[in-house]
Every structure is written in structure tokens, then in C-alpha cells.
Specification:
Layout: E1 6-10, E2 15-24, E3 27-36, E4 48-49, E5 68-73, E6 76-81, E7 84-89, E8 94-99, E9 104-107, E10 112-113, H1 114-117, H2 135-140, H3 142-153, H4 164-170
Antiparallel strand pairs: 1-2, 2-3, 3-4, 5-6, 6-7, 7-8, 7-10, 8-9
Length: 171
């Protein structure tokens, strides 16, 4: 059985990226496979061990295990591992961290704590699942609109204090 530990869809090349935490000779590694969205075939030469040869300027700390990945647009992903994360530009192959105050990025950066990258998130570690909702889903999905309404209702409040009873009353 092939278990996928993280995945995302990259629209620029119309492909799915799948990641699996594994071991070779008792050494922890991350395998990457890329599948074409049109013919659903794996790209030639994959899977590969994720490292700097596969993705330039990829941080060593994230070559042994990843928890989840989020595609954030503009050819970029956020990779999560335990209490740290790193932003990565797929097109130009560099890691980075955003400087929200200056509206700039620091290229070829090392991983940072999730709490520093996302200071308003109520959770600070072990982000083991992520999802990116495309514009078509946003426009045409009733389920997405319900979730968005729930999120909008609680903007500015501590999300960790939201309980299921309050969410069920909104429906």
C-alpha cells in the first residue's frame, strides 16, 4: 500500500505532487512523485528522494520528514514539519520566509517556527493536513460558502475557543 503523507496540485504544470516519508537503509527520507493531471501517469524518473539535487536550495532539515504541504499560489508552497515551516518557490527553486512588515521575502532562508510565520494561527505545531481551495470551488460550492461564512463570523476571535455547538448553530 502506498501511503501519501503530503500532496498538492501545481497548476502551472498541471501536475500532482505526492510525498511519502520513508526509510532507506535505516535512514529517514522523503520520496517525491509527480503525476500528470491529464493522463494520470507518473513523470519519468520518479519517485525521487527529495534533496537539493531535486529541488535547489531545499533545506536539509526537511529532507528526512514532512508533515504537510500547502500550495499558496504564485508558484509557492509552505512545507510543515513539527513546529517549523519553510516557504518554497517551485518555479525558481528557492526557500524563503516572508517579512510581513516590510512586504518582502528573505530568499534561501532556513525554516522558522510556525508561530513566527503565522502569528495569528491558534495552533503552533504538528500541522499534519492542509488544503487549498481553487477559485472554481469557491465560486460554485455551497459547502465552501458555509465554511467561509463560519470563518468570517469568527474573524478577530480566538478560533481555538470555537466549539462545535456554535458552529452547528450557524448552519
Amino acid at each position: 500500500i502506498y501511503k501519501v503523507d503530503a500532496a498538492f496540485y501545481y497548476n502551472r504544470i498541471n501536475s500532482y505532487y505526492l510525498f511519502k516519508n520513508s526509510q532507506i537503509n535505516n535512514k529517514d527520507i522523503v520520496l517525491i512523485s509527480i503525476y500528470d493531471n491529464v493522463n494520470h501517469k507518473r513523470r519519468a524518473g520518479f519517485p525521487k528522494i527529495l534533496n537539493k539535487q531535486v529541488w535547489g536550495n531545499y533545506p536539509d532539515e526537511f529532507t528526512t520528514h514532512i508533515d504537510s504541504i500547502l500550495y499558496i499560489g504564485n508558484d509557492s508552497i509552505v512545507i510543515f514539519k513539527k513546529n517549523k515551516c519553510i516557504f518554497y518557490n517551485l518555479k525558481d527553486q528557492y526557500s524563503y520566509i516572508p517579512n510581513y512588515n516590510k512586504k518582502t521575502i528573505l530568499k534561501n532562508a532556513e525554516p522558522i517556527y510556525i508561530s513566527k510565520a503565522f502569528p495569528k494561527l491558534p495552533f503552533r505545531k504538528n500541522i499534519d493536513a492542509c488544503a487549498n481551495i481553487d477559485p472554481y470551488t469557491i465560486k460554485y460550492s455551497r459547502q465552501y460558502n458555509i465554511i467561509q461564512n463560519i470563518i468570517n463570523k469568527f474573524i478577530g476571535k480566538d478560533i481555538s475557543k470555537i466549539n462545535n455547538d456554535k458552529i452547528n448553530k450557524i448552519k
